[in-house]
Amino acid sequence: MQLDARIPEGPIDKKWDNHRFRLKLVNPANKRKYNIIVVGTGLAGGAASATLAELGYNVKTFCIQDSPRRAHSIAAQGGINAAKNYQNDGDSIYRLFYDTVKGGDYRAREANVHRLAQISVNIIDQCVAQGVPFAREYGGVLANRSFGGAQVSRTFYARGQTGQQLLLGAYQALMRQVALGKVKLYPRTEMLDVVVIDGKARGIVTRSLVDGKTEVHLADAVVLGSGGYGNVFFLSTNAKGSNATAIWRAHKKGALFANPCYTQIHPTCIPVSGDYQSKLTLMSESLRNDGRIWVPLNKGDKRTPAEIPESDRDYYLERRYPSFGNLVPRDVASRNAKMVCDEGRGVGPTGLGVYLDFGDAIQRLGKRTIAERYGNLFDMYERITGEDPYQVPMRIYPAIHYTMGGLWVDYNLMSTIPGMFVLGEANFSDHGANRLGASALMQGLADGYFIIPYTIGDYLASTKLEKVDQKHAAVKDAERGVKERLERLLAVNGTRTVDSFHRELGKIMWEHCGMARNAKGLTEALETIPALRERFWKEVRVGGTGDLNLELEKAGRVADFFELGELMCRDALVREESCGGHFREEYQTPEGEAQRDDERFTYVAAWGWGGEGQKPELHKEPLEFKEVKPSQRSYK
């Protein structure tokens, strides 16, 4: 398959403006003739639904939660980037573009990244107009703080609950359209397949999570904003309901899956405390602005942090990366935490932890200032651990957080299934091999508010769409396939729980395709995952019926995770280099940094579904770097 990214010609700072002008438009009076399906109500899906409905389209919006406000975007705490340069510290659209390309270790598409940086300045204005309560300086101007991978302060925030406040802004815009009748909202509804007719996405098959009823919904275009696939690892910072089923079922219908091995490990998470845990809790990266990360200088030092003097502490990020210190990008911070713990200098009961210490900041700024900046995060940490971070350092350790891979999309955010657009974390497009902190909210809102309204109009205006109804053979086939899969899961009637299989898969993924990978481990995973998947289909016990059934929901999602996990390991094995969050132990510099191979791997790996039991097919989109020349990343 020849991949056409549809990247516009011309200078990088003019590409998006020129492209928008050339896109075909739908007459305002004709917009109400078109029906659009949006899956997901996070920042990408919620913003898209609200904006498309505001333009006049008829929108059906689906979410698995009981309310759009519960979408996982709510958990992005630290902030949202924008190149406003309010601090007058040297920021610009080009610098945000540069930092993002560099932070992604030169594995992102330049045109998409520059568009994201360009749109960032509009996002803040949009959110302020919606009433998002961003933090402000004493004089009333919006405040900014720093985040990893940047030497300027460009992150706008609302204490430690930025995602929640931004989501409420998108939610109120969405619910206004629901009240006006332009959006029909389907809560507690899961997408289980895409309906493809004449090669185009024309609808979805859903299952009600209340009564188990399956339905087919048809439209002129489908938009997926269903989030990432981090829960393939079982333990992650994602909500338990976060899953990959929407994008994975689309993949099996013809959408290529790009860079699946690019997963992000967040350095600032509360460490695992026992086998009973079902998820991990994120502590915002914003804490690294004022918290200093350290471990004991000597291996096996079991003294309390208060008993360890400065001379016996190793502030290892400040020592190794003096220019960026504790604000190095997430992949660098995570690998270094693992390294010092592997040396036997980790802290806490398991030895898998490092200190995040606010003692100096409290002494310098006062407890009140720290409480104003991070109070809700400190409260959350104390509720979970029983320790007061105002008195003792936090303990943190890296954890699975975000997925840079996702469905392949062109510059218009359309997948390889015409008429199916993919937004936010569900696509691969903007972050390369490592996402900089505070850029997820930026991408979700850029895609939903400012990109999809233009590009979906071009598709609708330039595509002949035949009328389809529920009697079409492709509709019947899709619905039948969903029902047969559900019945097959119910019929296994084995002895093991869904969670036991998911936990075992997660351990394989973390061990062999987690913070560090090597050929031996990945090869082993590619043998053990198919064997475990086979046992799943013979031994899993779902119980109950096809009605209200939480185990049936989970079983379908875990079945998808088995197939996705295998693809992730295959992608990681083929990519014989280290870049960003993909760290192959065989490919590193003498100092332990990631070592890219630009001669062989400057491409997007886009995988096609090969069929049950068949190997996937690899397609490559070459990446060109005309603006930011690839070099060895250095944060020293």
From TrEMBL:
Cell membrane in keyword set: yes
Cofactor section: FAD
MF terms (GO), sorted A to Z: electron transfer activity; flavin adenine dinucleotide binding; succinate dehydrogenase (quinone) activity
Family listed: Belongs to the FAD-dependent oxidoreductase 2 family. FRD/SDH subfamily.
Name assigned to this protein: succinate dehydrogenase
Protein species of origin: Chondromyces apiculatus DSM 436
UniProt catalytic activity: a quinone + succinate = fumarate + a quinol
InterPro entries linked to this entry: FAD-dep_OxRdtase_2_FAD-bd (IPR003953), FAD/NAD-bd_sf (IPR036188), Fum_R/Succ_DH_flav-like_C_sf (IPR037099), Fum_Rdtase/Succ_DH_flav-like_C (IPR015939), SdhA/FrdA/AprA (IPR030664), Succ_DH/Fum_Rdt_flav_su (IPR011280), Succ_DH/fumarate_Rdtase_cat_sf (IPR027477)
Domain FAD-dependent oxidoreductase 2 FAD-binding as annotated: residue spans: 36-441
